[in-house]
Amino acid sequence: MISLKYRGVSCFVQAASNTLCKSSLQNVYRDFHRNFSKVGFIGCGNMGNPMVQNLMKKGHKVSVFDVKKEAVSDLQKAGATGCSSVTEVVEGADVVLTMLPANQHVLDTYTKKGGILESVKKGAYLIDSSTVDPSVSQTLAPLAREKGATYLDGPVSGGTIGAEAGTLTFMIGGEEDAMKKVEPLLLCMGSRVVYCGKHGMGLVAKIANNMLLGISMLGVSEAMNLGIKLGMDPKTLMGILNTSTGRCWSSEMYNPVPGLLPNVPSSKGYKGGFGVALIAKDLGIAQNVAIQSGVPIPMGAQAHQMYRIMDLKDLGDKDLAVAYQYLKSEKSS
What residues contact 163, with CB distance under 8 A and at least 6 apart? Predict the structure, then answer.
C-alpha cells in the first residue's frame, strides 16, 4: 500500500487499498487532483477561513472571495489566490464551495448578474455549506443542472473548533453519486461525510442539529448559572454534568462559563465562534419550516425568542455561549 499525502485521497482509497495494486492507487491519486485542480471558495469568515486553510494544507490551490477585503487578504497571506469578484473565483473552477450567512446571500451569489451560475463551467460541482432554508437548495439545484453543473447542499457540524481541526461533519443533500465524487475534497476539511437524501435533506439535518444546539446551550447556561449562584464551584459542577445524565456537547466541549475550557469562545470574551445573530437566524428557519409542515417545536420556538432578545441587546456578534452571561445578569422576577 502506498502512502498518500492528502487525507482526502487517503480516505477515498482506504476501502480499496487491500485489493488495488500500487499503480491503480496512483491512478486514483492522479484522477483526484486532475478533477479538482482548481477550487473556489466564497465566504471566508469564521468558518470559511479555517476550511480554506485546511484545503491548502492538503495541497489544494484555492481561489477565494469575500465581501470583506480583509478576509481575502488574510487568506492571501496564507497562500490562497485572492479574487475581487465571484466571477473571478468561479471561472475555470472544478469545484466551488460557498459558506454564506443567510438565504438571500446564497440566492444572490448564485443567480444575480456576475453570480456563480453566470460563469460556472460545465461539469463543475457547486457545494453550498451555508445554513439556509431547504427550499434554497431545491431552487438552485435545477438551475445549476441547466448550466451543466452539479449542485449539492453540504452544511457542516462542528463549529469553528471543528473547522480549525479539520473534523467537520458534512451533511449532504443531492445526488449520492455526486457526493461520492466530491467526498475526497470534503474530507480535507472534515472527518465525516454523511449522505442525507435528496436536495434539501442536508439542510434539514443541519437545521434540526442547530435547533438542538440552541436549546442545549440555553439549558447548560441556566444550569451552570443556577449552580454557581448557589455557591457551587464552577469546575466541579462542570465535571459532574459531564459525567452525569446532563452530559452534552454544550457543556463538555463548549462550556459557556469563562475559564473552564481553553480555546473556546467563552474563554476569549465570547469572540468568534457561532454568533447569537446566526443561531437566531437558524432557529428562525426551523420555526418557519415547522409552521409550514405543521410540526410543533415549543422548545425551539422559546430558544428562538431568547436569542432574538440577546441580539436586540447588542449581543448579536458574540458567540451563542454568551447566553450564560446574559442569564447571569438577569434577575428572577
Answer: 46, 47, 49, 50, 51, 54, 156, 189
User: Residue ranges of the chain with pLDDT lower than 50?
Assistant: 1-20, 22-26, 28-29
Catalytic site includes residue 206: yes
Note whether 231 and 185 are same-domain residues.
no
d(CA 140, CA 138): 6
Domain membership flag for residue 10: no
Q: Convert the pLDDT of each residue in 82-121 to its tens digit.
A: 999 999 999 999 999 999 999 999 999 999 999 999 999 9
Choose the final residue of a domain: 181, 199, 217: 199
Q: Does 127 map to a domain?
A: yes
pLDDT at 272: 87
Residue 5 lies in a domain: no
Task: Report how far residue 177's alpha carbon sits from residue 4's, in angstroms, rounded to the nearest whole number.
Answer: 23
Catalytic residue among 206, 235, 271, 281: 206
* Cα–Cα distance for residue pair 43/128, rounded to 1 Å: 10
In the chain, the number of structural domains is 2
**Which range marks the domain in which residue 248 is found?**
205-327
Tell how far CA 153 is from the center of its chain: 11
The residue among 161, 179, 199 that closes a domain is 199
Please give the pLDDT value at position 330. Answer: 87
| DSSP 3-state of 99 | coil
Q: How far is the C-alpha of 170 from the C-alpha of 128, rounded, in Å?
A: 11
CA–CA separation, 220 and 212 (whole Å): 12
Residue indicated by cell numbers 466551488 = 96
